[in-house]
Amino acid sequence: MRPNYRITTQMLNLVQRISVLTTELSFEKRELHLRKENRIRSIQSSLAIENNSLTLEQVTGIIAGDRVLGPPKDIHEVQNAYEAYERVFKLDPYDVEDFLLAHYLLTNGLVKHPGRFRSGDVGVYDSIGTVVHIGARPQFVPELIRELFQWARESQISDIVKSCIVHFELEIIHPFEDGNGRMGRLWQSLILSKWNRLFEWVPIESVIYEHQQGYYDALTISNTTNDSTAFIEFMLQDILETLENYKIRVNKGTVRNIVTDLKPRELELYQIIEAYLKKNQQITNSDAKALTGLSAATARRYLKRFVDLGLLQVTGSTRDRVYKLK
Fold it and tell me: Are 123 and 204 in a shared domain?
């Protein structure tokens, strides 16, 4: 099979912005706690799209091994999803057996036939329960998946765009009795992760959840026109927004870690300067001297220390130098 799509100017612009931001974020230090937090967000958001009732706090508790009150089915979905996300990024995104294994991990104990293609017809529903699409007839599903993965393996198109196309085609084929939405989103993350490992930890599902109706609208438009262009553009925008959100959280986490590592006297002085800068756009060495009671030389030394740590930025010559929050 050869998927139907068009390469648009919007797609090219989004792919360029995604590539630049991904490269930039790949050089950032990603703390273990931030990775785990993003993984939990991915799981909670993807399951919430499928009407799982558990909150982010409850999902965090389940993964931590705590006793959490909630529907047993919803708890089981979280446990399965966590195991699947822990293992799936070692799989081959174009191998049918790996695809079935991932479905087994996601749905074992939840559906009658985990890890097996469906044997009956199935419909696709939007967020209010309206049927928007009927999946491929079951006898054609195995060959459609095989052909899709063969095309994806051989295609020279950008992996960023390819991941969107595969996601769309999986939703249209709807290969399983249940778990198709989760598999489509998970498989897109897997394809992206083979392009850049950052996507093992970036929760694109969380932005899909925030724009859930737009997600279904894009699916419907592309399905109606038999052209995945609208869905590709939606998902590229989603990926870019996810990366922008991730950058904000990485930067906040980096500043928080640096501030925590300051010595007691440094922290005291930084908090004084930070409070001043939250009310004023900039601070001079004279201002810092007056605020802290330090000598001009000592105030200048501490300001330089905060610049070196990336907490402040400095502009101007030595005499006219001003400092701002980074």
Answer: yes
